[in-house]
């Protein structure tokens, strides 16, 4: 019975120590110790060209912060990199325009981005399957 009580006490002390360590990590995560909770973030702006590593600026009352961010190089400019959509399958090829389309429904808006609820995107139809090229025959091998 005493062994059981000792184990319970040991677990209790260990749990208390873990909780304190978690609090310290949280406090370290606060840069500048800001108490502001209503941050408004702008879009991620790449350092050069229209994709790659860049910064996002945020404001809360009279405070301003910059976060490092990255715009994927295949992002869709029409709806922005901060709007995440769930897309349907691609539709059939429209012979007149040579494109196919699909619709997306907003799944998540990052950093308070202004996103459309549904979007429609198009892309060129892929050409018919190309015949596989025949492997080259090795020279001097009989």
Automatic annotation (TrEMBL):
Gene Ontology CC terms, in alphabetical order: extracellular region
Q: Name one GO biological process term.
A: oogenesis
Which controlled-vocabulary keywords does the entry list? Developmental protein, Disulfide bond, Growth factor, Heparin-binding, Mitogen, Secreted, Signal
**Where is this chain primarily localised?**
secreted
**What domain of life?**
Eukaryota
Protein localization: Secreted
The record places domain Pleiotrophin/Midkine N-terminal at 23-79
Which part of the chain is the Pleiotrophin/Midkine C-terminal domain?
80-141
Gene3D superfamilies xrefs: Heparin-binding Growth Factor, Midkine, Chain A- C-terminal Domain (2.30.90.10), Pleiotrophin/Midkine, N-terminal domain (2.20.60.10)
What is the residue range of the signal peptide feature? 1-21
Give GO terms: molecular function aspect only.
chondroitin sulfate binding; growth factor activity; heparan sulfate binding; heparin binding
So what does this one do? Secreted protein that functions as cytokine and growth factor and mediates its signal through cell-surface proteoglycan and non-proteoglycan receptors. Regulates many processes like inflammatory response, cell proliferation, cell adhesion, cell growth, cell survival, tissue regeneration, cell differentiation and cell migration.
Q: Which family does it belong to?
A: Belongs to the pleiotrophin family.
Q: What is this protein called?
A: Midkine
Report the gene name.
MDK
